[in-house]
Specification:
The chain is α+β, with helices and mostly antiparallel strands and 145 residues long. It is built from six helices and five strands. The protein has two domains: 91 residues, Orthogonal Bundle (Arc Repressor Mutant, subunit A), CATH 1.10.10.10; 43 residues, no CATH class. It is 39% helix and 12% strand.
Length: 145
């Protein structure tokens, strides 16, 4: 049986929001498609949202707009391609910082701390850690003293 761990902080944050039911389903679907697969963002089509949330196309589009306006979700438009979605770092969604402990290098664990979670790619992770006395050694970051 497969499952996705959801931190208590995320559930508590969700419970305090004044979202509509479809908004909760959209957020949980994005959570599953991103954090659930150890990714920080993912290209998700509207048809995937429809299948995954059982919501109507119009309800999902409206929900995404509300979630983006409320700073709970980031939508990166890709002209002519599927849009990319991710949960917002900061605000109440600090869970991303505390739960995502894998890098963009095939799921290898980071040795000293977590990678910053905004736009994690091999290049951005490497630059941030090099600026903070971390060095990429193989597929893991180690602090250089």
């Amino acid at each position: 049986m497969n499952y996705t761990k959801i931190p208590n902080e995320f559930i508590e944050w969700l419970c305090c929001q004044n979202f509509e039911a479809i908004d909760f389903r959209v957020l949980l679907f994005v959570y599953r498609k991103t954090i659930g697969w150890n990714k920080l963002s993912d290209k998700i089509s509207i048809s995937q949202f429809v299948t995954g949330t059982k919501g109507s196309r119009r309800a999902i589009i409206n929900s995404i707009e509300r979630l983006v306006l409320s700073n709970a979700l980031v939508k990166e438009k890709n002209i002519g391609k599927t849009n990319t979605y991710r949960l917002v770092q900061g605000n109440a969604l600090l869970l991303v910082q505390s739960t995502v402990r894998t890098s963009a290098f095939g799921g290898k664990k980071l040795v000293q701390g977590n990678a910053p979670t905004i736009y994690n790619t091999k290049d951005t992770i490497q630059k941030v850690f090099e600026n903070k006395n971390y060095k990429l050694i193989g597929n893991t970051f180690k602090e250089v003293l």
